Amino acid sequence: MASEKKREANRRNAKLAPAPKTTLSKARSAMNMASLPKPIVIGDEDPRQFDILRAKLEGDFNPGST
Q1: Measured between alpha carbons, how far is 2 from 11 in angstroms, rounded to an integer?
Q2: Which of 5, 18, 30, 66 has the fewest CB neighbours in a 10 Å radius?
Q3: Does the pLDDT value for residue 3 go beyond 80?
Q4: Can you tell me whether residue 9 is helix, strand or coil?
Q5: 20-54 b/e with 16+ CB inside 10 Å = b?
Q6: Phi, psi angles (nearest 5°) of residue 41
Q7: pTM, entire model
Q8: Cβ-based neighbour number of residue 14 at 10 Å
């Protein structure tokens, strides 16, 4: 785990980074956010039902394959 000092330095440096300009770099950048854990159920959806659906879809489409 990074120290608070290191995290602050990373935040400052990130503000200096240029924004993506090409379509490819924008797509890559968008994937960075996709890998962050966040809730994906909406409103009154049942998280357990969503997990069941996600597992079925992952089984059907095998997203990790190449």
Answers
A1: 12
A2: 66
A3: yes
A4: helix
A5: eeeeeeeeeeeeeeeeeeeeeeeeeeeeeeeeeee
A6: -85, 150
A7: 0.37
A8: 8
